[in-house]
Design a protein that fits this description.
The protein is 16% helix and 32% strand. It is of the alpha+beta class. Belongs to the Necrosis inducing protein (NPP1) family.
Length: 256
């Protein structure tokens, strides 16, 4: 009996540390707080729109209690994931990196797609905007680094048609005026989608998308941050902005 009680206690403690997993459509997103600091104001000012070019809609990954999404199996196309019933979320984190101000915006999707078909559970995509100085009245975007992923390389008779692209980011340094929202020079339009060759990634778009409520890393609850640190989303898609991965993500994205 004591052994059973100890086992139950260990299970409860493990769930407390790692964060419980709940259904993907039961995760309540964070409301976007009013920005207070220079970093928060810059993140809100430069928050992009996101247009979806196929696959699942954007979903929240964690709630205030630290409960993590369970995602969805890589089956049944977009069943159950076209739109979050409780609202979408974009996560952000910013810092100085090698004399440039980096703002990362990250989105979570319950399924990972390849050639327009669901492949596996979970997907994180992100963009890093590199600014000159967030304290300026109108900071300048110096470059944008888009995350990308190739799950498979297309083949004929088991022979690859192209080498696998290993670099996790692609960089753009010149942004067309058509890719800014309403003629501004701050908020951009982005497109997220996959291709027949299993590319999954982001890029600029001339078409309007949608905004999601932005929550910065420091604005999350302690429970939510702890859950995002310990959650296992798989080897192919990790949380890019947690303490474990943020510095390495910026190093991979740095274009200068």
């Amino acid at each position: 009996m004591r052994l059973l009680s100890a086992a139950v206690l260990c299970l409860v403690l493990a769930q407390t540390v790692l964060g419980a997993t709940i259904d993907h459509d039961k995760v309540q997103p964070f409301a976007q707080p009013d920005p207070v600091t220079i970093a928060e104001k810059a993140a809100v000012k430069f928050k992009p729109q996101l247009l979806l070019g196929g696959g699942c809609g954007v979903f929240p990954a964690v709630n205030a209690a630290g409960e993590i999404t369970g995602g969805l199996k890589g089956t049944n196309r977009v069943d159950g994931c076209t739109e979050s019933p409780l609202g979408a979320q974009v996560y952000g984190r910013s810092t100085w990196y090698q004399d440039k101000w980096a703002i990362m915006y990250a989105w979570y999707f319950p399924k990972n797609f390849c050639s327009f078909e669901p492949e596996s559970r979970h997907l994180w995509s992100n963009v890093v905007l590199w600014l000159d100085n967030p304290a300026l009245e109108t900071p300048t975007i110096l470059a944008a680094s888009f995350s990308r992923q190739t799950l498979k390389v297309p083949t004929i008779f088991f022979m690859p048609l192209a080498p696998r692209e290993e670099h996790p980011y692609v960089t753009v340094t010149e942004i067309s005026p058509r890719c800014f929202v309403d003629g501004s020079n701050v908020s951009t339009r982005l497109l997220h989608g996959s291709t027949k060759s299993c590319w999954i990634g982001l890029g600029f778009s001339s078409q309007d998308g949608q905004y999601q409520d932005l929550i910065m890393w420091d604005q999350l609850t302690d429970q939510a941050r702890a859950a995002l640190e310990s959650a296992d989303f798989g080897e192919d898609t990790k949380v890019p902005f947690n303490d474990k991965n943020f510095d390495s993500s910026l190093a991979e994205a740095f274009p200068f």
